[in-house]
Amino acid sequence: MNSEATFFMPPAISTYAGDVDQAYYWIYYLSVFLFVAMVGAMFYFVIKYRRKNSLEIPSGPQHSTVLELTWTILPFFLVMAIFLLGFKGYLKMAIAPSNATEIHVTGRQWSWLFTYGNGVESTDQVLHVPKDHPIKMIMTSEDVIHSFYVPAFRIKHDLIPGQYSSLWFEAKEVGKFDLFCAEYCGTSHSNMLGKIEVMEPKAFETWLEHEHEEQNKAVAPEVLGQRLYTKFACVTCHTTDGSPRVGPSFKGAYGRTEKFTDGTSGVVNDNYIRESILQPQAKIVAGFQPVMPTFQGQLKDSDITALIAFIKSVK
């Protein structure tokens, strides 16, 4: 497997990236050859059979069984060869090894949530995986269609709301590799970026154990609220520096009087925040669109309390 970047491709990091590249280059060079051959033949015929003078009467078209069989049978075998080459790679990508480690991937506007087998949840937009070990991803979406795309691994897979699908890979080199959402999913689609960090197996186990210990420690409500702020992708719509994004900034929000689109106004207090989380369309702040989804059934009362504490702390 060639892990060096080429003119057309980034480095090939996964075990089946070589198969994808082989199919791509086979089709590419075949297309170049056929393009040159057809355009060359066209120019040849234009020159050879051009009308010599205005009085020349060309002969009518003639039937050629050999020619018709050639341009029917030859493309058939070329198309079948392309199909078999692609189908072989598809089967390899679709069937995960029996020893693959499962990681759940959830896409939502506009971030990724990765959940590991021991309950650890990674909300920093980085998927941590061990080197030289197959990873099977169980994938779904909370809202709209997203697409999990990692160029270096040659993987791209849609995440469908209300459905689970799977995809696997095995990384062969340590490092960080770009992760994109390749399906337009709303106004902040371009911010739905992430990384896959490939680690040595021992380093991965150490990281996973450390994260498990950290996430199970008792924490202050505002600290837990900050984690939930990242985990549930509030960060993609609500900043903490005062700048508006899709929604109002959390900086100095608590205690502030907001004007709503229906002409009324109200103070940002505990009840308002709770209502905005569970019934976000009830009161829309003037100047913003009613695009926030409800978190009814996703957050416990203690989670909402922690989020309120976090918003209070953002001065």
Record the SSE blueprint.
Elements lengths: L16 H32 L16 H30 L6 E8 L2 E5 L5 E2 L3 E5 L4 E7 L4 E5 L4 E5 L5 E5 L5 E7 L11 E7 L1 H15 L5 H11 L25 E3 L5 E3 L2 H9 L22 H13 L2
Parallel strand pairs: 1-5, 4-10
Antiparallel strand pairs: 1-2, 2-3, 5-8, 6-7, 6-9, 9-10, 11-12
Helix pairs in contact: 1-2, 4-6
Give me the side-by-side strand order of the main sheet: 3-2-1-5-8
Order of helices and strands: HHEEEEEEEEEEHHEEHH
* Low-pLDDT runs: none
User: At the first level of CATH, what is the class of the largest domain?
Assistant: Mainly Beta
Give the second-level CATH assignment, the architecture of the largest domain: Sandwich
Structural account:
- By secondary structure, the chain is an alpha+beta fold.
- The chain has 3 domains: 1-47 and 64-94, Helix Hairpins (Orthogonal Bundle), CATH 1.10.287; 101-215, Sandwich (Immunoglobulin-like); 221-313, Orthogonal Bundle (Cytochrome Bc1 Complex, Chain D, domain 2), CATH 1.10.760.10.
- It is 35% helix and 20% strand.
- The chain is built from 6 helices and 12 strands.
- The protein has helices at residues 17-48, 65-94, 201-215, 221-231, 270-278, 301-313; strands spanning 101-108, 111-115, 121-122, 126-130, 135-141, 146-150, 155-159, 165-169, 175-181, 193-199, 257-259, 265-267.
- The strands form 3 sheets. Strands 3-2-1-5-8 form a 5-stranded mixed sheet, with no helix packed on it.
- A hairpin with a 4-residue loop joins strand 6 and strand 7 (155-159).
- Helix 1 runs antiparallel to helix 2 and helix 4 crosses helix 6 (301-313).
- The longest helix is centred in the N-terminal third of the chain and has 32 residues, at 17-48.
- The radius of gyration is 28 Å and the shape is elongated.
